[in-house]
From TrEMBL:
It comes from Prymnesium polylepis. This is Thioredoxin domain-containing protein. It comes from the Eukaryota. Residues 16-72 form the Thioredoxin domain. InterPro entries: Thioredoxin-like_sf (IPR036249), Thioredoxin_CS (IPR017937), Thioredoxin_domain (IPR013766). The lineage of its organism: Eukaryota, Haptista, Haptophyta, Prymnesiophyceae, Prymnesiales.
Amino acid sequence: AVVGDRYKPLKDPSAYATMLAEAPADTISVVKFTAPWCTACHRSAAKLDFVAKTWSESVRSRARFYRVELQRAGDGDGTMKRFYQSRNITQMPYVEVYVGSTRLDALVLPPSRVRVLNAVLDEAKAALKVIRVRRLRRRVNGALRANRAAQRVLEREWRLQERRRHLTRLFMQLGARRRAVFRGRAGLDPDRAESARQRHLAWDQQWAERQRAVVAERGRLERHKRRLARLAAPTSS
């Protein structure tokens, strides 16, 4: 394998900015800044590639590796040179380590200091663990809040059902009491029971009379309409 092929190339500053903007919060990003004429970069390349291989194959590391290369011939307008200067890169290989889009560390890694990158990546992995714990805690708290809200809804429904059952029992008791009063078995003295029965009978008679009056009035209106219709109809000569 070609040394450094585990580092995905970022060809210009816009690709670098896009990579950081789209980096998930639970991902480690390692960016290596090199140049073809840098002797220390060539000497550190094999060790840096081994670090990338080790961490890329780790399932839970979620580490991604990139490289930015300064070219003398391919940088016609000096964009990459200005980009390196804006980041104060004076020695190479220069490595930045990000957790999500937040820079955790930036360091120069000659061959004798490449092992420091493993320590920085361990620190980044610990930071990822904190992020995952916080995310899990937010999910648990959200689930607990949803559970409490659902429990409140269930309690409200239960109270409404209890009220409905209570009202149903009241209506049944009132109906039974009315029937008992109407039949003269209300537990009262006979005179009061008879008086209540007579009142209910009078109410029923009044209701029946009103219903009969309404029916009779409707009949009169219908007959009147038919009579008017006959008078309005044209007579045949």
